[in-house]
Write a structure and sequence with these properties.
This protein is of the alpha/beta class. The chain has helices spanning 5-12, 25-45, 118-121, 144-147, 152-169, 185-196, 219-227, 237-254, 258-268, 277-296, 307-315, 326-341, 350-357, 369-380, 399-410, 414-428, 484-508; strands spanning 2-4, 52-54, 57-64, 75-83, 94-98, 124-128, 178-183, 203-207, 214-216, 381-383, 438-443, 463-466.
Length: 509
Amino acid sequence: MAVKAPWLALLLLVSLWGLSAPALLLRRLREHIQRFQESSNLHLGFGLSQGLVTVPKQGWLEQPLDPFNASDRRTFLQRYWVNDRHRVGQDAPVFLHIGGEGSLGPGSVMAGHPAALAPAWGALVISLEHRFYGLSMPAGGLDTAQLRYLSSRHALADVASARQALTRLLNVSASSPWICFGGSYAGSLATWTRLKFPHLVFAAVASSAPLSAVLDFHAYNEVVARSLTQVAIGGSLECLAAASAAFAEVERLLRSGPATQAVLKEELGACGSLDLTEDQGELLGALQALVGGTVQYDGQAGAPLSVRQLCGLLLGDSSNRSHSTPYLGLRRAVQIVLRSLGQRCLSFSRAETVAQLRTTEPQVSGVGDRQWLYQTCTEFGFYVTCEGPPCPFSQLPALPSQLDLCEQVFGLSAASVAQAVTQTNSYYGGQTPGATQVLYVNGDTDPWHVLSVTQDLGPSEPALLIPGASHCFDMAPVRPSDSLSLRLGRQRIFQQLQVWLKAMKKNQD
């Protein structure tokens, strides 16, 4: 099917709505970068210079709402995409891109890997959107009773069911190997699919996968601080000191009374009250997420700022440093990020955040804040905090404040969240899951790599740590500016798949 390029642009460049909880700024950045990369790749690689572009096929699978209860006949429609332009024969490999905590568009089977790897093996490329995200939304809204059917275990059951259904629908041979790909949470799902369904999935590539659930993720900001000092990506000890000074100045201004707070609101895009400590925590958390997000997505196409640019702002131009301060640099960084995301507000009051997260109407554009908060409260934690000397930011928002969101939005106690995190690690094995033929790929500047596997666990559990690479950078579309280490990393992924597929072919022969 061919469509005109302007329509495609409208399809891909869906606007993002206002920020909610501060840590979710990271999700806004992720969504923005993903859409930018998909759009750019489609324009460059699929014939838009001729005014037409081939769009992958979109399909829908009827899936059980509760796959663990055969007497429950309720179902929902789960979206998938198919790119068969490289497929060679019915017994070609199938590359399955598993969706995570957001919507999946056509770029999920056309941009980055696995699409870039498909031509070498004549592979069929499929992506599967995660239940309760994007358009794969069960009827009945997002109330807490309905969200009982949202978990990684439900998602894995969907993958297993889809694998069997799509084998029939797309005439896939029984001898075709299925290889799962995923990034971030979806990278964990790729690992766990191979772990729990080894008879259905031949291998997996897990990029930036946080396999270990953790309640207090203070290590995130420790990596951010370390990355801000890395000269290779534009950091320095002076940059880290400037970031710390900027946050100290924000905290000083917050303590200076209502008049100063009013100025601060205007300068930093705080659209809610700053009267209460919890409201101040929302702003400080959003500022932390801005700096953390810059490190997390450093160097990627579509990222509003790189570490080099952020450090330049915080330190001021070398010719004009006497007229600049770290706080002014942080202000400029806020303006750049908000403009890039098309947002007016960096933060809201805590009450407004809670009210937004309590909304049970599905948001069609697909970011899924309420859904992901529910999964953190019932499975993963991942609450980023700033504790101890290694952290250059504010200690607000503290862990209790973040855990309170689970109570305020879903009625879940802090004790139940802690228990859920423990159960998740017990069920999947944390950083030693025991799944074979899984390649773990991480970048050493990505704060999430500390929750993943960065050293080989065994001959069939290899790990690849790419120097200077940020979150899921290996999955991004290839660019001429890609570093040598990133290019070598992608080559290693190709070689590992080649080893596994050749061994399988030899066994079949």
